[in-house]
Write a structure and sequence with these properties.
The structure is a homodimer. Chain A is α/β, with parallel strands linked by helices. Chain A is built from 12 helices and 15 strands.
Chain lengths: ~425, ~425
């Protein structure tokens, strides 16, 4: 049996421990929901203040040039590229993950006019599936969305499949797909791949180029710590950029936005994925989050992530096993991301009780408790303390409202 | 001949003069570019600080509920509705103007499967035309984009036209379209209308319901003073909301976003126009700008706007007439918006020189100087001082680089 001292020693030996001080987190809180909303980097306030007071308030419209607002999508894209194994000019920050997915799925489907299937995992992130159905509605031809279980994906990849689109790390169970393997299988069948990196980028190295990925999207507000609703990003492999065909042809993607010509002519390269004007305040905050990650060794981030999730699963098994939890996250380290999901019939009430005791996780229907571990700010002692709290709640039964505990309205969603 | 005292007296009598103090503008600056980027409302810093430090930093993920982040698009939409003559539930704030235009044009075209023309003004805002061509590419049938001069629009509206889409106030010359008249003509021919309010909302009352407008979009960063790249908004008339068909089917537009079901089912009402997660920092700033406008009497705003633009044109005619300027903005008050555009063969150099002398206007190729008048913060004396500066520059010839004046790099774009 481990004790708290073991976890304290791990924190002392942690090469990433210095990053904790770069975040503003309430002292009393154990925050295990960075897979939903990343914590606040302390420098965001300074950066956004400068953007508001100096750049907007003082320099005004000239800031589009003098303070490089026009360039922020590309500057941020090139920085994010370093986190996901891409080259400069392959990534750009803009819009939301959903809108960016619309762009790349439109492009991928248009590139394969003789194929009629979009293949995905039935458990893919729902908004990704919604967007795919929206893209299909624009295709002017019969395209089938084929959703199968993750175990059936391999056998379903054939010459009818235009696009295989998957999420790198599953939001429910935290299972990690083998990006290299699945991309190779797709390419062997002449199928394009689109990866959603929302639940992996920032928590581990991602190797888009090495895996020869065609397209990818991801969000800025989870492990990139870019703030609520932060702009997202989109990746198009260099070799495919000449063939982009997004119908979201806005002025920022024009080859000469300030010529104000009547006809659309797309910019060269990744800029053609831009559409409207970027929300600069939110972009500036995202840059601070991304800069922090650029200072970290992503191999160390991954190593710590594996240790945190391993220890959490191990502790839950040891200390809470008689309380009816099922661990749904793969035990094999390279098959999981940076979260642990437990199933429990009273998951909602338990998540609420944890929150009441200062441990923030989240609940997903029907019965999932999700615990996210963000290696830049999650401490080893947080693992111990969170399981200690869980253990205590289960032993005392205080999660059960029928026990007469009056905690008021729940907030753990 | 008027003198500066006349303008000072106008400022003293101005019922809107109190609003100037609600903006942070550099003392020495005459800012006449609010039609491109609105000035900074002083309260933005407080509001955004609170969102960052308290809501993101302290309350973290619970803020989606506890601080109503989930509701911000609808809250802001209902506020903007009051500025544009719409009802609660008809407007929602989200995405960019371009992305929102994609949604409404897709819907409008899908609603008229037996019509094959999108009709617009050749001088419409270019990004609007680009987006229309993108929408057409998704239609799976031949749709013609018919661009004509503004004088030819009326005769071109017939039963082949699915959608008439126009900008309320033209970005080049500041001419204002007769929204009621054009909408009636379109409806008489069974044609739907889409209006872009980017250059009118916030500078004058807009009467979408009274004009029976079908769809509208607009941006948040011009006269709404929402900050650089602020979220935009979209309006769908109540009666048409049941027939919305946007292909941008993201999770925020789902009828139950937190059920995480596999199939998309659109929300009722205007919420179905949402797609991805809203950028909260930028949304919060926009709310401050909109709140300021809600405190103003829009009839007074329009009255002042007309006076400012009239006086500016009159002063330019009186004092700069021998210097080769052509006033392109309509003299008739109800035919113009809140900007004045002058043509001059050396427009670029003159705009730069003005900027160097503390008067910010902007230049649009090939020869346009644009002066925007934002009645909440533009003073009558700004009109006098700007023309005084223009007069002086033209008299002294200091705009002409060949005269040896060395002002360094220009920034007036």
């Amino acid at each position: 049996m481990l004790n708290r001292k073991f976890f304290e020693e791990r924190d002392q030996a942690d090469p990433l421990s210095c990053f904790r001080a770069e975040f503003s987190l309430p002292d009393e809180l154990i925050y295990l929901d960075g897979n939903s909303l990343g914590a606040l980097p302390s420098q965001v306030m300074n950066r956004v203040s400068r953007v508001i007071e100096r750049e907007w308030g003082h320099d005004l419209v000239r800031s589009w040039w003098d303070n490089r607002w026009m360039e922020l999508p590309a500057i941020l894209g090139d920085k994010i590229a370093q986190l996901i194994g891409a080259q400069p000019g392959e990534v750009i920050a803009c819009d939301s993950t959903s809108v960016n997915l619309f762009k790349v799925l439109s492009t991928a489907l248009s590139s394969s006019p003789d194929r009629h299937v979009i293949l995905s995992d039935r458990a893919n992130f729902p908004t990704d599936l919604y967007i795919a159905s929206g893209v299909i509605s624009t295709m002017g031809r019969d395209v089938e969305m084929r959703l199968v279980g993750s175990g059936e994906l391999e056998q379903q990849i054939d010459s009818s499949v235009a696009v295989l689109f998957l999420t790198h790390v599953d939001f429910r169970h935290g299972a990690r797909c083998d990006m290299g393997h699945m991309t190779r299988l797709a390419h062997d069948a002449g199928t394009l791949v689109v990866w959603d990196l929302s639940h992996s980028a920032g928590a581990m190295p991602v190797e888009l180029n090495a895996c020869e990925v065609d397209f990818a999207v991801g969000c800025g507000y989870k492990y990139l710590n870019g703030g609520p609703g932060a702009p997202a990003y989109v990746y198009v492999a260099q070799a495919l950029q000449a063939g982009v065909r997004t119908p979201l042809t806005g002025w920022m993607g024009h080859e000469a936005p300030f010529d104000f010509s009547t006809r659309y002519a797309h910019a060269a390269g990744i800029r053609q994925m831009l559409c409207g004007s970027p929300p600069i305040l939110s972009m500036a905050a995202l840059e601070v989050g991304v800069d922090l990650l650029l200072d970290a060794d992503l191999a160390e981030v991954r190593k710590k992530s594996i240790q945190l999730t391993s220890l959490f699963m191990q502790q839950v098994n040891e200390r809470c096993k008689e309380h009816g939890f099922t661990v749904l996250t793969p035990r094999e380290a390279n098959r999981r991301g940076s979260q642990v999901s437990l199933a429990h019939p009273h998951g909602f009430e338990i998540t609420e009780a944890m929150c009441h005791h200062g441990v923030v996780a989240d609940f997903r229907p029907p019965d999932l408790l999700r615990f996210g571990f963000a290696p830049l700010y999650t401490r080893y002692t947080d693992v111990w303390d969170a399981v200690e709290t869980l253990h205590q709640i289960m032993e005392e039964g205080t999660w059960d409202r029928r026990e007469g505990d009056n905690r008021g309205e729940g907030t753990a969603r």
